[in-house]
Amino acid sequence: MKNKDFISKARNTHGNMYDYSMVEYINHLSPVKIICHKHGVFEQVPSYHLSGNGCQMCSKEKLGNTKEKFVKNFWDAGHYRFVMGR
Question: Strands, DSSP E only, in 1-86?
């Protein structure tokens, strides 16, 4: 696979989420440099990236936001009364 082939497949998987201008594809197990528009440069093995994995910082934020939203919605909806036994 060449750089352009990897980049084409990556864009099919991730859309325009990432900048691939630093990619130097060697093989499917040699990490490449990918630029997250929000968090900057990260390295990832091409096979992982093409299978749908992306920026780890974005993943952590997404999980954190999900938990925060759940807790806020839980308390705002008054469900705490069931937990507190009232």
Answer: 18-19, 32-36, 40-44
